[in-house]
Hints:
This protein is α/β, with parallel strands linked by helices. The chain has a single domain (7-216), classed as Rossmann fold. 42% of the residues lie in helices and 16% in strands. It has 7 helices and 7 strands. The longest helix has 29 residues, at 77-105. It is globular. The N and C termini lie far apart (35 Å).
Amino acid sequence: MPLNGLEILLVGGAGGLGSATAELLESEGARVIVSSRSHGIQANITKPEDRTRILDSAACLYGLVIFAGTPARGSGEDLMRLSHEVNYLGPILLAREAAERMRESGTHGSIILLSTMQAVAVFPGSTIYAGAKAALQHAALILAKECRGPANIQVNVVAPGVTAAGMAQASIASGKYDRFISEGVIPRFGKAIDVARAVRFLLEPDNYITGQVLSVDGGITL
Length: 222
């Protein structure tokens, strides 16, 4: 059980994806700390003092997984600003602050950010949400390059597809994505455990992967 005793922070981890990930990591002995706006360590990662409080909750941080985000459905400048803050600014600042702590403590850890299939491929009408997530992906790769070498901190991104958990549930219920199954594009909708397994894979202590975007989408972005 290579994760036994390691401290892993799941931020925005109270939803379906986070809960499945927490259960999987805890089954391997990891010490999981959950933070969200409503459960666990209640915090808003767009606020500097809340990010500090989240990171202070871990005595010896090994892993950070950032699920936080908003679907940002709609249009207008206010929604675009909200998407920028919640889907990009808060997560990347938290990731960079965590990486700095890991460097200072000499921890060879792992940081994983959650993106979306909409940042990997072009989906009409997704500018507000996908634009912020695409920026997050690129910034994560820059952070990975900054953390490679002696620091040995892996930074990767997981990009879920149509997953029957979290933000995509409402869209699945509306039938928005039914055609991808009827046309044979994907065999089924994703499950929370699909994403959890990808996160677990990238958290492996002897991981040799960094600066990558792993699409967990059944091939939909192909």
